[in-house]
Each structure stands twice: as structure tokens, then as C-alpha cells.
Amino acid sequence: MASLDGFFRPESVAVIGASRDPRKPGHVIFRNFLEGNFKGKVYPVNPNAEVLIGRKCYPSVTDIEGRIDLAVIVVPAEAAIKAMEDCGKKGIKNVVVNAGGFRETGNSQLEEQLIKAAKKHGIKFIGPNTLGIFDAHSGVDTLFNPKYKLERPQAGGISFISQSGAIMSVVLDWMSMKGYKASKFISYGNAADIDESELLEYLASDSRTKVICMYIEGARNGRKFFDAAKRVSGRKPIIALKGGKTEEGGKAVSSHTGSLAGQAAIYSAAFRQAGIIEADDIEQLFDFARMVSSQPAAKGNRVQIITDGGGFGILFADNMARNGLQLAMMESGRLEDLRKRLPEHAVVGSIIDLTGDVNAERYGMCISAAMDDGLVDMIVVIALFQVPALTGEIVEVVAEAARERKKPIAFIAAGGRFTEVLKKSLEDYGVPTFSYPERAAAALKALNEYSMLSR
Amino acid sequence: MASLDGFFRPESVAVIGASRDPRKPGHVIFRNFLEGNFKGKVYPVNPNAEVLIGRKCYPSVTDIEGRIDLAVIVVPAEAAIKAMEDCGKKGIKNVVVNAGGFRETGNSQLEEQLIKAAKKHGIKFIGPNTLGIFDAHSGVDTLFNPKYKLERPQAGGISFISQSGAIMSVVLDWMSMKGYKASKFISYGNAADIDESELLEYLASDSRTKVICMYIEGARNGRKFFDAAKRVSGRKPIIALKGGKTEEGGKAVSSHTGSLAGQAAIYSAAFRQAGIIEADDIEQLFDFARMVSSQPAAKGNRVQIITDGGGFGILFADNMARNGLQLAMMESGRLEDLRKRLPEHAVVGSIIDLTGDVNAERYGMCISAAMDDGLVDMIVVIALFQVPALTGEIVEVVAEAARERKKPIAFIAAGGRFTEVLKKSLEDYGVPTFSYPERAAAALKALNEYSMLSR
Question: Distance between CA A157 and CA A286 in Å, rounded?
Fold first, then answer.
């Protein structure tokens, strides 16, 4: 299989359909390459302009002198065929077709023409009808959404293959706000050439991708997809959300991407067999990804809870039970020792409740104990920052404990702006953070599942 | 039953244990009354200070000259008994005992003394071991959390009775950030006097409370609680989250508030019988509250989806089905008319997908049609703001449609900062907003349940 590096690490890019109008996709995409962290050359193509954002504009790609590694086609469907032909003449081998108006609106014939033009010249392409691709490391960014509306996340290890452009755009924007980090994001649209299976294999071999997330409504070739997933899941975690699992959702799928949704149970079983971890919703997809990509494997399902809020500890315990996890109980000598060193009103047991007068030092003491104890497999730290004595110091304490990678650790803190800022800095240290107990419990369950797969 | 108005609309308040040290609860609480929107008089009580934050300080409440409607006791447990006696001598009838160190840490005897002292003088009290009470309308605020760590939400119609102080603090902070609006928030701690049942009855009669939320681990008197709930739920919606529903969580409850958690199934059945809507997690609690308190009753379970992102529409349809809701299908003439007026690539049916080039006007057209159509009971608008042409105008379009209160409407938008700001302004207009399909679908289900109760 040919590598898709040309899409993600091109040295030169042509934007066919670059535009002067800031509201047009062709303008936004051209600007992305100029203003982001892309290091290569960018050429605007538009027969009706001579200069665009201070750059010389070309009537056709064939008029550009240097080599072009990647072309982005942002013209209407009819004009896209001609643009693809031009790419072929120019010797371009990788094309992203952002343009829509093909199979998804009933124009299957036009899509066939596009495929034919690409095949003739040995071109690999993504799309048509795609939001595009985004690589936080190389700065390749063919998303037509302006940055003030859709912020781009920092570079990290989570990649995403999405059958829905809208979901991908939402996820990127949300990850930026939360401080979560991204690698390669690909909206593959109608998958007229490159499909989900090929992308999966590529990301498996990509060293910057630590975990692969997917939103999938229906594979074009189910057998091929599950075979690919089986090969890849042994090397890297794959986490997937299936859209159209119910009859209601399934009806909608056929009018959306034209693929068959298939039945819920069949998909879930196939996911399991292929080693894919299934998420129930969009947040879970990325909760699981952050957990699995940042934390070491769990040796078992026993969780030590360390909290400063009793109610939150209880809700976490409830959600643990629902997710098949168990409360840990440290060795009695160690618990006795903690009891001596902590204030009398602290509750020391399966749930350590340090109560409202907690400080960072007490958290540190309990986390160390749990890290050292043979009867604890995973650690959850719940820190509600609303209490007076708890400061940002806890961030360093937790980050330090996580750095050793002895046991998986998850951090829960809920609230407003103060809390969000502190959580963002923990994310920077590579500790997965959560707002609510149910989210963290489900993510630990996913980590435990993945750990069993790789045991 | 005596009204609890003295707690929430006092004209004069004494803070017993007011302190000079900004990290001390007694300082924070005194400051809350000075710097918030509280209009009455505030007196600091502390034998070791003459002036506090520019106010004359009193050695004892009995030294204050004027009448005192409410006292807040923020001294250690042992000193709290004497403070309660002093309140009695002064003729104070309402007391909040923030102090901890009573039954919850094994000092049941001390708690008995506190009760005895209060009874002797006919005092009603909340606590001990409570985070306190907060009234966004009157400015009563006995929370010991500084405002920079725990922001206070604006005044609105959602009240909350919480057995956990930590959960209440988190919720207030989070509501502020989201722009959700609060009425009365009560952490009742050990409930040595005023308990959840009495609070429920009070909020039922409180005109500023539109919906009552509860976090409950275990009622002290289950029979009394469910009888009260049954009476109240006929007048106002009650939404509850039960902590300690699983065996694991239940074990933790007994060491937290000392109450018995009881079995999950028994509680759920009792909730249903009493007309309480049960939430599965903290976010749901307030999702349901915002929906039920702001939207008109639903006449049925048929939902029209109007979206600009196909994937999000599909995920919503999936979640609808899981929540027992149905896709609506408007009258064929109306659908035909919409098809004529919308661009050719828009998908018009049970899910209207306006796709990525949508503008506010097209949303308005579809919302009007759904409002007028007899085959639609509820409307969900999904607006992903990442697309180029969609502006803040949609906020006015949706707010205008919601103002008529013809049918319930829910708004979904996910993403980063831009999206959050626009959602906050819709919340200001009283339209419930959600980030993810699963959240909105569960909230519409809760509204439908409540609508059936009141039909």
C-alpha cells in the first residue's frame, strides 16, 4: 500500500479555487496554509485573479513552475473534473477534493468521471464532499472553516477518521478549547478513492499517531474494513463511534452519505472481534482516546478513589460499578499509616475522603501510597477546587505522580473557569482530566478493556 | 408548617465566627453579604476583633442592638452550642450551622446538644456540617467558597436541595460558567432539624422556584420524604439524582453522611410513584431542569430535527430512539413547500439537513414550518457554528420562535469558545442549549415524561 505521506507532509500545495472573498471556502483554505504552521510553498489557483493575499495567482495548476505535492480542489462539482485532469497533467499525485455535489446529491455519474480522471493519471484522492484534512504537526489544513469559528488544537497523538465533516469540525473546535491535542484529522467524505480502511492502515504506520479515533456510519466494504481493523488494533488502539445504530438513525444515514448503516448488534460484535473499542457518544470517543494514549496499561480493575468531596466519591463509585470496575482496598498497614498522618476527620478506606480543608500535600501522600500498594490497579483523583485551601499546587503533585507511569491515573474536577484552567494545565502534562464521575469511570473501563487486549 | 422565608429573605444577618483571615470560612461568608447583592444589614461577631472589613464587630450576637433575622454559625463544633444558645437569647429564629464535627465524624452527642439548644428557644436551623445556603435573588450567601474559585450564577428559576456540599459547590460554579440561572440552593448537611422534606414543601410554595432539583444519598425518613414529594410533584417538577445506588456507592454513603443508601430499584420505583423525574448524572439533573422549567409541555413524542450537520442529526436520531422518542414527519404539502424554498442539496424529511452553507433565514423557515405542523410535537435545532455562513443571527431566530411557547424547542451546538458564547446568549433568552445529541435527547424525554404527568 502506498504511503499517504504526500497528503500530510507535502512540501508544496496548490489551492485550486482560491478566492478573494473571505467567506468562500477557497479563501479560508488558502489562508490556512499561509497563516498556520505550514512550512512549505503554497500556490493559489484562480483564472480570475492575479494576486491573492499578496501571492501570485495562477490561472491553472499547469501554469505553476515548481513541483506540487498536494492539490486541494475547492471548485463546484462540474469544474472539479477539469481540475483533476489538470492535476494529472501537472503530475500531482495527491488531491483533496473538498467540493461537494457528487454521489451524496444523486450525481453518481459526475463522481464516476472524477474517479476516471484520477485513475488515468495515477492520482490518489480524498473526497469528494469532504471537510478536508488537518495535521496539527505539519500545518496541512484544508478545512474551510475560519479559525475564529473553529479553533485548531495543538499537536499531539490523537488522530481521527470521520465519515462526517460536521462532527470532525465540532471535535477540533472543542479539543482546542479543552486543551486536548491532535495529530491527523481526516474527513473522507464520499470515499470515492481513499477509504476508511486505507486511512486506518496509514495511521497505524504513522509514528505521530498514538491512538486512532473513528466516526463511522457505514463502511463501503465492511469485510475489508474489519480485516484492516483487526491488523491495526494489535499495534495501536482504535476507538470508534458508530452513527445510525438505531432504526431511526439508520434511516437518516442513507440520505446522508448514501452508505448502508447496518444493524447495531452486528456492528458491535464486529467491533469487538476486530479489537475496536466502542464509544457510545462523541465525548466518550475522545475521553477514551486521551486515557488510552496517555496512561500505562492497567493490571486489573481495582480503583482507589481519592477525593475532597464525599458526594463526588460516591457518584464515582456508583459509575465504577456500572462499568465493571471494583473499589480497591489497600493493605491494612498502609491504610493505618495514612490514618495516622491525615487529620482525624479524613475518611480513609476504599474511598479516601480528604474533605473540604484538603491541601495538595495530603493528596500527594495518598497518591504515593496508592501507587506503591499491590492491591491498587488504577487511581482516580477527584479535586474540587471550590474549597478554600486547595491551590494550583495539586497540578504539579498529580503530574509528578503520573510521570512515573506506574499505574493509570485519572483526574476529575468540575466547576467553572478556575477549574477549567487548572485542568488544561494537567492536560499539558499528559494527565487525562474529566468533569464528571460517569465520564472518568467509562474511560477507565475502556483502558482496562484495552489493557486486557494487549496483555 | 412554618415558612422558611427568614432564611432566604432576612433583613438582618449576623455572622458568628466572622474572621479577618481571607482563607477562613468566617471571612468569606461575611464578605459574601457585603459584596453580593444582599440589601439588608450584616453584623460580624467575633470576640477578638473590634472592626472587620470596616464594620463594627461584636463579641456576641447578644451585644447587637437591632433585630436579627438570620444567624450563620461558622465556629468549631464545641463553640457552636454556645453560639446557638446566644442566638436563642437574642431571639433569633433562623440559624445556618456551617460548622462541621458533629454526627458525620461520630460526635452524635454534640449534635444532640445542638438540637436541644435550638429546640429550647424555638429556633429552626439548617445543618450542621453544611456548605450553606445561596439565594441568587436576595443575595443570601453562606457559602464559604471564595468567589474567584466558585462563581455565583445569575438569578433564575432553578432551585437545588443537596445532601452533598461538594456537589452543590461544583454545580453553582459550573452553572455560572454556562450562563444557567439559579434560585435557591440549599446544602442541608446532617439535617439535624430542617430536612429534605421540609425544604421540598417550602420550595413548592416559593414563587421564584420553577423547578426543584435534588441530590440525595438517603432520606432520614423515607416515608415522610416520598409523601412530601408526592404532594409537591403535582405542583412543580422535581428532578432527583440518587447517590449510592450501587453496592459500591452505597458503602461509601454510610461513611459520608451516615444515612442508609437503600437499594437502587426500590428508590427508582419510589421516585416514579412520587412523580419525581430521575436523572442519571449531575449534568442530566440540570439539563432536565432547564428544559422542564423553560419549555411548554409536549403534546407527544414526535421530534422534528433541523440540522446543518448530517452526522449530528444521525446521532440525535440514534439517541432519540434510545429515549423512546420518535422522528416526526410533517404534512407532505408542507415538506413539498420547504423543498421548493430551500436549495436543491438540502435534505428535507424527518431530519432536515440544511448542510454546511446554511444561514439563519433557512433555519427560521424550517422552524416556523415545524411550529405550525400538527404532526410535530417537539423541535430540535442543531446549529454547528463552525460553517462559514452561519452567524449569531440564528440566536434571535430561535429565541423568537421559542418566545411564542407553542412547542418545546431544544438547541444543540458543540464546539469551542465562539459556540459557547452564542449558547450563553440563547440561555439568556430562556432556550435550553446542549453540547451533545445524547444530552438533548435525554432532556426531551424528561420533558415528555413530565408533560404526561401533568396532562
Answer: 12
Q: Do domains B5-292 and B296-454 have the same CATH topology?
A: yes
- Our CA-based measurement puts residue B315 at a distance from the nearest CA of chain A, in whole angstroms, of 6
Q: Which of B259, B281, B287, B314 to mutate to test the interface with A (most CBs of A within 10 A)?
A: B314
Instruction: Tell me the one-letter amino acid at A187.
Output: S
Name every chain B residue with its beta carbon within 8 A of the beta carbon of A322: 246
pLDDT band, very low/low/confident/very high, at B256 (cuts 50, 70, 90):
low
The SS3 call for residue B422 is helix
Topology of the domain comprising B296-454: Rossmann fold (3.40.50)
**Cβ neighbour number for residue B34 with a 10 Å cutoff:** 14
Quickly tell me which residue has 415524561 as its cell.
B449
A412: left (phi over 0), alpha (psi -120 to 50) or beta: beta
- b/e burial code for range B387-398 (CB count within 10 A of at least 16 → b): bbebeeebbebb
Overall fold of domain A5-292: Rossmann fold (3.40.50)
As for the ipTM of the complex, it is 0.86
What does the radius of gyration of chain B's CA atoms come to, in whole angstroms? 25
Cell of A242: 458508530
Q: Does A318 contact B169 at a Cβ distance shorter than 8 Å?
A: no
Grid-cell match 458491535, residue found: A268
Provide the residue ranges of all domains of chain A, joining segments of one domain with +. Answer: 5-292, 296-454
Provide the mean pLDDT of chain A: 93
Under the banding of pLDDT at 50, 70 and 90, the label for residue B388 is confident
* Chain A hits for B383, Cβ within 8 Å: none
User: Concatenated DSSP letters for B209-231?
Assistant: -SEEEEEES--SSHHHHHHHHHH
β-pairing verdict for B182-187 and B132-135: antiparallel
In B42-151, which residue ranges form alpha helices assigned H by DSSP? Answer: 77-90, 108-120
